[in-house]
Amino acid sequence: MKLNLKIWRQKDAKSKGQMITYPLNGVDGDMSFLEMLDILNEDLVNKGEEPVEFDHDCREGICGTCSLQINGEPHGPDRLVTTCQLHMRKFNDGDTIIIEPFRAKAFPVIKDLVVDRSSFDRIQQAGGFISVNTSGNTVDANAIPIEKHVADKAMDAATCIGCGACVAACKNASAMLFTSAKVSQFALLPQGQVEAADRVQHMVRQMDLEGFGNCTNTGACEVECPKGISLENIARMNREYLSANIKG
Amino acid sequence: MAILDSKVPSGPLADKWTKHKNDIDLVNPANKRNIDIIVVGTGLAGGSAAATLAELGYNVKTFCYQDSPRRAHSIAAQGGINAAKNYQGDGDSNYRLFYDTVKGGDYRSREANVYRLAEVSGNIIDQCVAQGVPFAREYGGLLDNRSFGGVLVSRTFYAKGQTGQQLLLGAYAAMNRQINRGKILPFNRHEMLDLVLVEGKARGIIARNMVTGEIERHSAHAVVLATGGYGNVFFLSTNAMGSNVMASWRAHRRGAFFANPCYTQIHPTCIPVSGDHQSKLTLMSESLRNDGRIWVPKRLEDAQAIREGSLKPTQLKEEDRDYYLERRYPAFGNLVPRDVASRAAKERCDAGFGVNKTGEAVYLDFAAAIMRYGTEKALTSGMKDADKNTIRQLGEEVIEEKYGNLFQMYEKIVDENPYKTPMKIYPAVHYTMGGLWVDYNLQTTIPGCYCAGEANFSDHGANRLGASALMQGLADGYFVLPYTIGDYLSDDIRTGPISTDLPEFEAVEKDVRERIEKLMSGSGTYTVDHYHKKLGKIMWNKCGMSRNAKELQEAIDEISALRADFWENVKIPGSSDSKNQELEKAGRVADFLELGELFAKDALNRNESCGGHFREEYQTPEGEALRDDKNFKYVSAWEYKGEPKDAVLHKEALTYENIELKTRSYK
User: Fold this and answer.
1) For a tag site, which of A224, B270, B304, B346 has the least CB within 10 Å?
2) Which positions in chain A touch B134 (Cβ < 8 Å)?
3) What is the CATH number of the domain that holds A175?
4) Do the chains contact at B165 and A189, CB–CB below 8 Å?
């Protein structure tokens, strides 16, 4: 198929960016979206032009590196996939596709479609861990039974890949879904409860410091999340936060 | 060869590690604060090592090319992690895990290392649970296990099909705790370009800030490389796009011996190649072989009809299918080790029984498992005479719970519903058992340069068993390296900070800058990917699942010529002093072009078949691998001497005192 790509080009963090149009031929439905961009880049390099920079790595939907806003949606029109798992069969011959970086104050553009998501790391550093030493001198793994449905719920929350689609989807650029997924994972497990109050307070404080917006419950994050992280997590985080503050 | 001292402690196998820990020198906590350690790579091995070293009190700097440590490719490991917990009461033990690993590796790994791995395996699970890793559980609340290839017990712990992700996020969380304390300084989007030696000891690295293009000097008292495997030398592999050999190869060029480069794991269950545009291959976890049955049609005409689309696999009767693994290996069936399963698939496809357009695919079928689970679920749900459709639906739900994310991934890529029609799979490059040679302490042949995880060669011999990579990465990082490195660093308590103004840093930085300049000044005829794809084709065709002397020699010549062409004609647009993905790729491919040749040379030297290394000249009449223990019971460790063709072979003889050398049989 033939496509018309409108892509955000920006030299570096300080430069002004703009949309540039690239026609592209010879795209086939079995290609992933990123393989389609590979072809464009191969063409550009052959012409001596600078290729379009975009973040990507595992290309199997788990590392969370890829991050494109495609036709206004993070990771494009398909549901429950990252951009690398989006296939061109979801598009039609002759389509115009608009490709932008994830937009958020806390995700500044580095170059072209590459954004800086280190704000996510800093939220995790503020409290997204359980303070046990890595010495191995812990209790036996089976010493504390955990109900299966609780463990499964923790797993569902832990499945977040930290891609930032939730932020890019949100009109407030809120990171509540991301932050609440980690808060929930640990709040649900007995191992995480010891530090639960501190954790939620520290992580929420960091989230605010980074310049992420507030949650107004539109639910766009849940719709666009490639891993199906549930809004329930936000509710749980709010409860955790409230009770942590009441306890002082 | 005296030059390779494995430093394996004396004494009975089961006591070696404890004895060693008691014997080695320690660094007191106050002195640890004065010692810096660089960890390159933040996957399971690097991340866990960095966290533990920082927790012990050392000052740690971590480096990764990704934008966050959480994205290292360990994250993509699906199936699980082994541990000899014997929670299932099926007779597992440290010895059995040790035995299975040595046997699975076709008797080409070091006994003492493997035993230590088995010994600490149980601790890993305890540790991860304490960190909040949400492993799968049974209804009673205890941890669940599943079975993996090459073993007869259930010792694999898992978190859906995302075990690597959960373990990595555990290590990342442990790192975050130390970053928060200021004990780890993370350098993300940084790539190590060279290793700096001062008076023969590893004392730092030269790294490139991938955002600004700046070349930076970083010093430390020791350098840990945990930079993963080199499967991307094949261009198409299940590795991440950025996975590369640069850190290891740079260290190799500075004096670290490279061991067994030809030992590559071709994983049997990957999604087949669909076309020329393909950028990478996707793994379907080995855990699927617990429940999936692998088959091709019995008759060539049926295979042809399927390829042409006139026959559907579901229409083929049971008796017209060849469940070739169950037929050839009745004891292990679909759960034979990976190398055996891969070769068997290739054998069937080469014989004309392949089931996709390219003829390079076999079926992995869940229909039987769906009905089996469905029946059980119906009974436990109180449905005494459920109809077939209800049973199928219930069965699909069970399968979804176990492998849901894998099935979804398959459907997105292939556009077929694997609940309804069997998956198509074919072997693909997945893991490299070879890597930098290390002694029992995980130290390379460069003092102060350590190597952990997939990047080293130590534990898997010629073939790795499923769910053992995660185990090894975390064992090295959490439990081995943090102790053994102290023995070396105990001599450094009076050294004080290492200055980056030393002439050694200056010299290496100059080398690095010259190399970048040379890359940027190619004639500009072909793209980096052009060379990478060509290299990949040579590797896959001549150094892939089966190898022979003639083609290996051809590969050596072709790679050498391709490398010369690359340096002459590669095309890299943009500049080196800003973000430049083409330059990043070029540096990596340049090293693959050297490693590829050494790989072929190593495969040519090894005149036997063992594990993942299958030489056509050395096989039994039934087509099984034929080892030559008399002449090749050694680790090949190559010393860099300029061009790969000049590399000098050193041999570490392998001794088996606790295990009887046998021909591997899974029949």
Assistant:
1) B304
2) 151-152, 154-155, 158, 185, 189
3) 1.10.1060.10
4) no
Q: Is the pLDDT of residue B72 over 50?
A: yes
Residue from B203, B208, B338, B392 carrying the catalytic annotation = B338
- The predicted-structure confidence for A127-151, as pLDDT tens digits, reads as follows 999 999 987 778 999 999 999 999 9
Q: Mark yes or no for CB contact A12/B579 under 8 Å.
A: yes
Candidate from A34, A135, A154 with C-beta closest to B279: A34
Fold classified for B501-633? Methane Monooxygenase Hydroxylase; Chain G, domain 1 (1.20.58)
Residue B286 pLDDT? 85
pLDDT value of position A248:
65
* Phi, psi (deg, nearest 5) at residue B477: -75, -45
Instruction: Enumerate the residues of chain A whose CB falls inside 8 A of the CB of residue B277.
Output: 28, 30-31, 35, 38-39
The percentage of residues in chain B with a pLDDT greater than 90, rounded to a whole number, is 93
What are the chain A neighbours of B413 within 8 Å (beta carbons)?
32, 85, 87
- Residue B422: φ, ψ to 5°: -60, 150
Q: What's residue B665's pLDDT?
A: 84
Q: Using the 8-state DSSP alphabet, how is residue A70 labeled?
A: E
Residue B178 CB neighbours (<10 A): 23
The stretch B432-436 carries a mean pLDDT of: 98
Say whether the ipTM exceeds 0.85.
yes
Kindly list the residues from chain B whose CB atom is less than 8 angstroms away from the CB atom of residue A145.
137, 140-142
d(CA B529, CA A42): 8
Does the pLDDT of residue B1 top 50, yes or no? Answer: no
**Whole-model pTM?**
0.97
Q: Do B71 and A64 touch (CB under 8 A)?
A: yes
CA–CA separation, B191 and B252 (whole Å): 17
DSSP for B120-179, written as a single string: HHHHHHHHHHHTT----B-TTSSBP-B--TT-SS--EE-STT-HHHHHHHHHHHHHHHHH
B629: exposed, middle or buried (Cβ count in 10 Å: 0-12, 13-18, 19+): middle
> Do A75 and A177 lie in a common domain?
no
Backbone angles phi, psi at B344, to 5 degrees: -65, -35
Name residue B279's amino acid: S
Which of B62, B68, B532 to probe by mutation at the A interface, max A CB count within 10 Å? B68
How close A178 gets to chain B, by Cα (Å)? 14
Q: What CATH number corresponds to the domain at position A20?
A: 3.10.20.30
- Supply the range of the domain harboring residue A93: 3-111
Parts of chain A with a pLDDT under 70: 248
Residue A121 touches chain B, beta carbons under 8 Å: yes
| Residues of chain B found within 8 Å of residue A191, distances taken between Cβ atoms | 129-132
Contact A60/B283, CB-based, under 8 Å? Answer: yes
Mutate to test the interface with B, among A60, A78, A149, A225 (most CBs of B within 10 A): A60
Q: Do A60 and A129 reside in the same domain of the chain?
A: no
B217 is catalytic: no
CA-CA-CA-CA torsion for B651, B652, B658, B663, nearest 10 degrees? -30
Distance CA B243, CA B230 (A): 7
Give the three-class secondary structure for B232: helix
